[in-house]
Every structure is written in C-alpha cells, then in structure tokens.
Recover the amino acids of this structure.
C-alpha cells in the first residue's frame, strides 16, 4: 500500500528536521556567529542526528513532526485556556478560608490508541492544576483530583479526551 | 503614552500576577492536608506562576536572543513539569502512601 520509497523519504525528512531543531538550539543558545562556533554547532548537530539514527529513535515518537501544526494551532491554545481557568479555580480554593476541597480518585479509560497520544493526554491532565495522573496505562488512567467537580471533568469522551484523540489521528502517511 | 511605558506596564502586570500566583501556590502548599492535595497547590506555581513571570520577562526582552531563550525555558517547563509531577505522584502511590479522600457522596456544603 505504501511504497518503500515514501518511508525512506519520510525518514530523511525527519532526520533533516531533527538536524534543523538541534542546530537552531545551538544558534539560539550560543548567539555568537563566529565561524568556529558555527562549524562546531554544525558538526555537533550532525553527530547527534547520526547517533539518534543509529539507536533508532528518529521516529514518530522520538520526533513527532506531524503533530507540530495541529498542536501549535489547535491543541496548545485550548490547553493554555484550560490551565488558566483551572489555575484560577485552584487559587480560589487555596485562598478560601473554608478550604472547600473534596479529594477524589477517578479511573478513566482513555480513547487514544498510540503511546504518544496517551502520553499527551496524561501530561495534559497533570499540567492542568487540580488534576494529576497518578497511574498511566494503555487501558486505564488513575487520576487524583482536588475536587469532585474536577474529577467529573476527567472522563472518556470528555473534551480533553476527544481533543487528544483528534490530535493523534492527524493524518500521517507512514508510521 | 509612549510604547516603552506600555511595555513596562504589560511586563510588570504579568510579573506581579505571576508572583502572586507563586505566592498562592506556596500558601496552598502549607494549607493542604496531604501529599497529593499539596501537589495540586504546587502545580499552580509551576504552570501559571512560572508562565506569567516568563511572559513578563518576555515583554522586556522583545524579539531578541534573550526572548528566544526565555521561550525555550518555557517550553522546557511545559514538557518536564507534568512528567516530574506524574513520577512523584506515581512513586508515592507505589510506596503505599494513601491519599486522604473525601467521603463518596456527601455534599461539600455544611
């Protein structure tokens, strides 16, 4: 179905994109365009790409370039909004004299099918204040929530679950 | 109103708000009853607290090398902080630290 050429092309594209990221990191952190430093950075970036290819981590998990645009344009803005909203709620709980917490453990069956998707989902849960993913598995997440309302928001088919699944299914020609 | 003043205003608003959220996180750390609930308070500090402080500094740095480095710091926190929190909570549970839970169906109001 998928020609072998396409696989190789994508693999080269991934390596090239990894190289660009590494070299850009070097340039930004060094900030000095001296010939020696530039060539040292070039050499280091190439060396790291070579190592990464040799230990076979330049794949859809190690360097998920296909997720860049949908993540940047759609998922991260939404996640940012969620973080701000729930940080505000947790702050209000902290400053409330009665400390109205109702700590709850809740189990969740995530609908993601890939490991990258599961990790994004679990990390997003932890990143939003008020919920922490305590145990993460393919079948089930165990989530600790500060309040019952927070626990109710974490569920299969909930908005975060749906959005991560949509992100994960973003079209990719080859794995 | 000059552009510099506007930038300083935006920057200081973010810095002060970020500092405020860090303080709230610290207060929460002291007020919460057990390990897991304390982690929730701490996550206010390292998401919105750190984020707003970085944003405030970003207004000062503008489109410069320092600005790019601040963005890289932000990205680093964005990816590593939830991973570290998860590792912490997971190992606490694996070592048998039971979370204090609210009674199942009781209302939180008196």
């Amino acid at each position: 179905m998928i020609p072998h050429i396409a696989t190789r092309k994508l693999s080269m594209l991934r390596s090239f994109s990894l190289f660009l990221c590494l070299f850009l990191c070097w340039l930004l952190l060094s900030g000095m365009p001296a010939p020696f430093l530039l060539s040292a950075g070039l050499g280091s970036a190439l060396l790291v790409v070579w190592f990464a290819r040799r230990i076979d981590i330049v794949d859809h998990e190690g360097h998920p370039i296909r997720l860049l645009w949908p993540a940047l344009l759609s998922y991260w803005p939404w996640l940012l909004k969620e973080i701000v909203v729930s940080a505000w709620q947790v702050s209000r709980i902290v400053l409330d004299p009665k400390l109205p917490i109702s700590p709850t453990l809740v189990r969740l069956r995530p609908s993601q099918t890939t490991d990258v998707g599961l990790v994004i989902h679990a990390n997003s849960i932890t990143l939003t204040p008020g919920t922490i993913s305590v145990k993460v598995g393919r079948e089930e997440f165990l989530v600790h929530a500060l309040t019952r309302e927070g626990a109710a928001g974490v569920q299969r088919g909930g908005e975060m679950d749906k959005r991560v699944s949509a992100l994960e299914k973003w079209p990719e020609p080859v794995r | 109103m000059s552009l510099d003043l506007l930038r300083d205003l935006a920057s200081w608003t973010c810095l002060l708000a970020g500092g405020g959220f860090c303080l709230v996180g610290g207060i929460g750390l002291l007020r919460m009853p057990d390990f897991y609930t304390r982690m929730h308070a701490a996550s206010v500090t390292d998401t919105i607290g750190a984020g707003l402080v970085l944003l405030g500094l970003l207004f000062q740095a503008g489109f410069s090398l320092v600005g790019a480095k601040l963005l890289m710091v932000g990205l680093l926190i964005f990816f590593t902080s939830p991973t570290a929190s998860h590792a912490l909570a997971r190992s606490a549970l694996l070592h048998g630290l039971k979370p204090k839970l609210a009674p199942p169906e009781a209302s939180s109001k008196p």
Observations:
- The radius of gyration of chain A is 21 Å.
- DSSP finds six helices and three strands in chain A.
- Chain A touches chain B at residues 25, 28-29, 31, 83-84, 87, 90-91, 93-95, 99-105, 122-124, 126-136, 142, 144, 146-148 (CB under 8 Å).
- The longest strand of chain A covers residues 131-136.
